[in-house]
Amino acid sequence: MSNFVYLSRERLIELEQELKELKTNGRKQMAQRIAEARSYGDLSENAEYDAAKEAQGLLELKISKMEEMLAKAKIIDTSNMPKDKTHILSTVVVKNLKNNKTYEYTLVSSEEANLEKGKISITSPVGQALMNRSKGEIVDAKVPAGVIKFEILDIK
Q: How many Cβ atoms sit within 10 Å of the Cβ of residue 151?
């Protein structure tokens, strides 16, 4: 596995904005929460204070993980990639040959995967089956429920 985290330019911008929000407003809100809990009195028996300190630790962990991911981020440049083969950031129109339904997926890194938005990871069983394929090919995706056959109808 590489040390890089491959991201689209859009996802990189989203992550940078989210990190900025966590570092500014997230930390500010957490400090207010801790100060409020501290005002409730004896810290040794103060459940609100303990919960606020634990939440602060989780916030700092999330910030740290995001900073680490952004430090390893590499923008994916699709301009040099072939247009007739699927690759990361390809949008693929496929037909499930079992139920005859058509789906449109964008192949992304695991950090960007979001099935509700039609973004599937290239490390998922379906994503792996669709990588480096051509229009018209029939591929087998080995999923936990068995094998799903897809026909690649289009590559965008």
A: 15
